């Protein structure tokens, strides 16, 4: 497939004309392969959450809030100096897929291709975005209160 075709189709086409900005906060979402509930078993979810939140994973960027659902992940990411969002997401997904594959080989493919991002505008409420994110488990009916769900966290906003 030629580069021109790649730039006009699929996930790459959605990124056309976008750029990463240091200091910008992004709401990022990506799903598991075939929306499989890979993270429903506690052991798998705990491993994934641990590896996804290791500080070294984030370099100059900061993970402000996150939730790992059985079949997807949401995060509020403040991009650091020199960081590029596509590279950061690729590194996060690649590393966790490799480690989860070694620890839990029966899972098969971990992540679906691509991701969705939304750059928060100045007028958007960061606290409201974080609350929306961590309440995913309640809205999905997994728990009655977010505090009972083990796979989320947020820095003090």
Description:
The structure is a single chain. With 157 residues, this protein is of the alpha+beta class. It has helices at residues 3-7, 10-15, 42-53, 55-58, 85-103, 126-134, 136-139, and strands spanning 25-31, 62-69, 72-78, 116-119, 152-154. The protein has a single domain (19-154), classed as Transposase IS200-like (Alpha-Beta Plaits). Helix 3 (42-53) packs antiparallel against helix 5 (85-103). The termini are far apart.
Topology:
Elements: H1 3-7, H2 10-15, E1 25-31, H3 42-53, H4 55-58, E2 62-69, E3 72-78, H5 85-103, E4 116-119, H6 126-134, H7 136-139, E5 152-154
Antiparallel strand pairs: 1-3, 1-4, 2-3, 2-5
InterPro entries: RAYT_transposase (IPR052715), Transposase_17 (IPR002686), Transposase_17_sf (IPR036515)
Protein name: Transposase
Organism: Lysobacter koreensis
């Amino acid at each position: 497939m030629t580069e021109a075709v790649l730039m006009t189709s699929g996930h790459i086409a959605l990124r056309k004309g976008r750029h990463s900005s240091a200091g910008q906060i992004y709401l990022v979402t990506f799903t598991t392969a075939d929306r499989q509930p890979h993270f429903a078993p506690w052991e798998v979810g705990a491993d994934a959450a641990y590896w996804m939140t290791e500080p070294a994973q984030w370099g100059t960027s900061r993970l402000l809030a996150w939730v790992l659902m059985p079949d997807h992940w949401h995060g509020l990411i403040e991009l650091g100096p020199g960081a590029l969002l596509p590279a950061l997401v690729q590194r996060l997904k690649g590393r966790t897929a490799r480690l989860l594959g070694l620890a839990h080989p029966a899972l098969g493919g971990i992540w679906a291709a691509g991701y969705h991002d939304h750059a928060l505008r100045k007028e958007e409420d960061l606290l409201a975005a974080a609350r929306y994110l961590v309440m995913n488990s309640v809205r999905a009916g997994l728990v009655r209160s977010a505090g009972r769900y083990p796979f989320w966290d947020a820095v003090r906003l």
